[in-house]
Amino acid sequence: MKSCLVVDDSKVIRKVARHILEGLDFTVSEAADGREALDACLASTPDVILLDWNMPVMSGMDFLRALRETPLGARPKVVFCTTENGVAHIRAAIEAGADEYVMKPFDRETLQSKLQIVGAA
Ligand SMILES: [Mg+2]
């Protein structure tokens, strides 16, 4: 079973993502900001991370930079979540080490295809 860490400050989005991911046979854990996510990765590195951009404490971008500088046992795949008006962030995210991106709101089919692209589903 693959593991996915859902990082988003919205409890509703975490819940929706969890529901979809569990339906795709993922073991799901959650973090509400980048700091929590980094701690979670150090404790147990997930196969894939679904990452929000705008979060308090530590943003998705800051998390991504910190993650790529942190020596972990494995390199988790990162799927970056953005909104229609956040398209300009995609390039910066990919340059900072994201593997793919998905537009919010996402549905099961979209998320599954993105996970397949990064080889996690
Ligand atoms: Mg957010």
From TrEMBL:
Q: Residue positions of the PTM 4-aspartylphosphate?
A: D52
Which BP terms from GO are recorded? Answer: phosphorelay signal transduction system
The answer to whether keyword Aminoacyl-tRNA synthetase applies is no
As recorded in Swiss-Prot or TrEMBL, the protein's gene is named cheY
Q: Which organism is it from?
A: Sphingomonas jeddahensis
Response regulatory domain: which residues? 3-119
The keyword Ribosomal protein is annotated on this UniProt entry: no
UniProt KW keywords: Phosphoprotein
SUPFAM superfamilies named in the record? CheY-like
Name the lineage.
Answer: Bacteria, Pseudomonadati, Pseudomonadota, Alphaproteobacteria, Sphingomonadales
From the Swiss-Prot or TrEMBL record, give the protein name: Chemotaxis protein CheY
Q: Which PANTHER family match?
A: TWO-COMPONENT RESPONSE REGULATOR (PTHR43228), TWO-COMPONENT RESPONSE REGULATOR ARR22 (PTHR43228:SF1)
